[in-house]
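BUG: 3D viewer hangs when loading the predicted structure for this chain

Environment: internal workstation, default settings.
Expected: structure renders.
Actual: progress bar stalls at 90%.

Input used:
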Amino acid sequence: MKEKIVKKASELFLKLGFKSITMDDIACEMCMSKKTIYKYFCNKEALIKESTAHVHKEVHQIIESITTSNNNAIAENFEIRKMFSDMFQTSDTSPIYQLKKHYPEIYTEVLAVEISECSRCFRQNIDKGIASGLYRSDINIDAYVQFYYTLIFNINENISSEKEARKLELAALEYHTRAMATPKGIIELEKQMQNQIL
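Structure tokens produced before the viewer hung:
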């Protein structure tokens, strides 16, 4: 039952916002009493913590399946971006922005985990791109990883509109890729950019 509550709460938080969804809303949506939810979670913050952990796990499982498929490094990044767009397309306000604004302590915890996880993913992607000749081999990998996650996190935590955040993320991805790409990588980037729908 606890897992079902977390799953439903996660959906509602992402769709309608961490602030606006109440324990009553979740109970009503699940056709159960609020008392049942409080049996598993002492308060809304505890449920938000579990929900963000659930979403984090789900996101990284999908990223793992994308990175272990046969995509090249550039196509892989665009596939990951598409996954985020699909996952958050029902929400008007960026979930990260909401979390930072209304639940800063939870946001700080989430951010620490995300920075470490994203840095690992970005580094793997750059290594893969260099090995396949899509990215230049003379780049400072640590600096490029830091540049990119700083860009992405700043967009998500400071832009309230999910649609606007997605647009800027695409621009950041193009900027990041173009800065590292070889002539062969630029051809792949142009191909990926033509397939993008904002």
